[in-house]
Design brief:
This protein is 42% helix and 18% strand. It is built from 14 helices and 13 strands. The protein starts with a strand and ends with a helix. The protein is globular, with a radius of gyration of 20 Å. A hairpin with a 2-residue loop joins β12 and β13. The model has no long low-confidence stretch (mean pLDDT 97). The longest helix has 16 residues, at 253-268. The chain has 339 residues and is of the alpha/beta class. α2 (35-47) packs parallel to α11, α3 packs across α10 (215-227) and α12 runs parallel beside α14 (326-338). It has helices spanning 15-22, 35-47, 59-70, 84-87, 92-97, 113-117, 150-162, 174-181, 185-191, 215-227, 236-248, 253-268, 294-303, 326-338; strands at 3-4, 52-56, 76-80, 100-104, 131-137, 166-171, 194-198, 209-213, 273-276, 283-288, 306-307, 309-312, 315-319. The protein binds pyridoxal-5'-phosphate. Pyridoxal-5'-phosphate binds next to α3. Pyridoxal-5'-phosphate (PLP) is lined by residues 58-60, 63, 84, 137, 141, 170, 172, 198, 200-201, 209.
C-alpha cells in the first residue's frame, strides 16, 4: 500500500470525475465561448456572494493576478511572514508586479487588524513605499491549516477601508475553513475585494483555481491572465472536474479533518514526538525529540509505504486528503503505534 501524506495536491481524479470531464461541453474560452467554464465561474462566484469569477490553471496565477490588479510597481503589500504569496510563488510579487512585502509576525500564519493598522506607511511620507494591499490566507498553509475567526476579517476590512487598501484572500483551502468553522461563504464576498480558491487541493480536481470579484475587476483580470499566459482554449474539460468536485467533495472534507485529529491523538502519546501544533483542519505539523532524526523517521515510514514531508527546523508535516481512505488510515495509526 502506497500512502502519500505529503500534500492534498496528490489526489487523482476518480472514475466519476473523469466521466464528468469526458462528457463536458466545451468551446474556446479565450473567446468566452466555453459553457462549462462559464458555468464553473458563475457557480463559485454565486457561492461566495461575488459578481463574477475567472478560471485559472493554478492558484499561484490567480493570486499573482489579484496582486497585479490591486497594486502599481513600487507599492507594498502587507501579509504574514509565512504567506504563500511571499514564500511559495517564486518571488512573483516582485517579478510580476514590482511590489515589496511588509511581512507581519502573525500567529500560525494569521494576522490581526491591529498588526495591519500598525504597518501601513503614511501615504504623505513619500520616501516609503505606498501601502496598497493586504493579503490573508484561510486556511493557512505553513501555519498548519489554521482558520481565521471571521470577525477578524471584518476588522481588517475596516482598517483597509479607512486607509484605501484593497483586501485579497488566498483561499486555496477555503473549503477546509468553511467546513471547520461553518462560516457562511456569502459573507466572504462582502469583505474581500478578491478571493482565489483552489479546486486541486482538498476538492480533488486535477487542476484549477478561480478568482472572484466584481464584474469590472474580473474584466480587468482577463487581460492580466492573458499577459501571464493563462488564457486557455477548450478548457471546459478541466472546469468540469471542478464542478464535479464542488458538488461531491466539500462535505467529505470533515473526514480529512477527523483523520488528522486522530493521527494527532496517536502522535501525542509517542515518546519520540516533542510537540504537535493545534489541528484544526487537514494539516498536522509536529516536531520530534532532539535525539530523533527527521530523515531516519521519514525513511522508516517510507519503508512501510508512508510518505510525509519535512518542513525543516525539526518540523514534519502530514496532510490528509480524498485519496487517504479509511483502510489506509487504520494502517497508518497502527504503524505509528508500532514504530
Ligand atoms: C497551494 C496553494 C496555493 C496555490 O498553489 P498552486 O500550486 O499554484 O495551485 C496558493 N496559496 C496557498 C496557501 C496554497 O496552499
Amino acid at each position: 500500500m502506497e500512502i502519500n501524506l505529503v500534500s492534498d495536491t496528490v489526489t487523482k481524479p476518480t472514475q466519476d470525475m473523469l466521466r464528468a470531464m469526458f462528457h463536458a461541453q466545451v468551446g474556446d474560452d479565450v473567446y468566452k465561448q466555453d459553457p462549462t467554464v462559464i458555468e464553473l465561474e458563475a457557480k463559485v462566484a454565486e457561492m461566495f456572494g461575488m459578481e463574477a469569477g475567472l478560471f485559472f490553471p493554478s492558484g499561484t496565477m490567480a493570486n499573482q493576478t489579484a496582486i497585479k490588479l490591486h497594486t502599481q510597481p513600487g507599492e507594498q503589500l502587507i501579509a504574514d511572514k509565512w504567506a504563500h504569496v511571499y514564500n511559495y510563488e517564486g518571488g512573483g510579487v516582485s517579478f510580476n508586479s514590482g511590489v515589496s512585502c511588509c511581512l507581519l509576525n502573525g500567529n500560525r500564519g494569521m494576522i490581526t487588524a491591529e498588526q495591519v493598522s500598525g504597518s501601513i506607511n503614511d501615504p504623505e511620507f513619500y520616501h516609503a513605499p505606498l501601502t496598497s494591499l493586504v493579503c490573508v490566507e484561510n486556511t493557512t498553509n505553513k501555519g498548519g491549516g489554521a482558520c481565521y475567526d471571521f470577525e477578524e476579517f471584518k476588522k481588517i476590512k475596516q482598517v483597509c477601508d479607512a486607509n484605501k487598501l484593497k483586501f485579497h484572500l488566498d483561499g486555496a483551502r477555503i473549503w477546509n475553513a468553511l467546513v471547520a468553522t461553518n462560516d457562511n461563504p456569502k459573507e466572504y464576498g462582502k469583505v474581500f475585494d478578491t478571493i482565489s480558491v483552489c479546486l486541486s487541493k482538498g476538492l480533488g480536481a486535477p487542476i484549477g483555481s478561480v478568482l472572484l470579484s466584481d464584474k469590472a475587476t474580473i474584466h480587468r483580470a482577463l487581460r492580466i491572465r492573458k499577459i501571464f499566459g493563462g488564457g486557455m482554449r477548450q478548457v471546459g474539460y478541466l472546469a468540469a472536474a471542478g464542478i464535479y468536485a464542488l458538488e461531491n467533495n466539500i462535505e467529505r472534507l470533515a473526514d480529512d479533518h477527523r483523520r488528522a485529529k486522530e493521527l494527532g491523538a496517536v502522535l501525542e502519546n509517542l515518546s519520540w514526538v516533542a510537540k504537535i501544533e493545534p489541528i484544526e483542519t487537514n494539516i498536522l505539523i509536529f516536531s520530534v525529540q532532539s535525539h530523533v532524526s527527521e530523515a531516519v523517521l521519514m525513511e522508516k515510514l517510507k519503508q512501510k509505504g508512508i510518505s510525509i514531508s519535512s518542513m525543516g527546523h525539526g518540523k514534519l508535516r502530514i496532510v490528509t486528503h480524498l485519496d487517504y481512505r479509511e483502510v489506509m488510515h487504520t494502517y497508518v495509526l497502527e504503524t505509528l503505534l508500532k514504530l
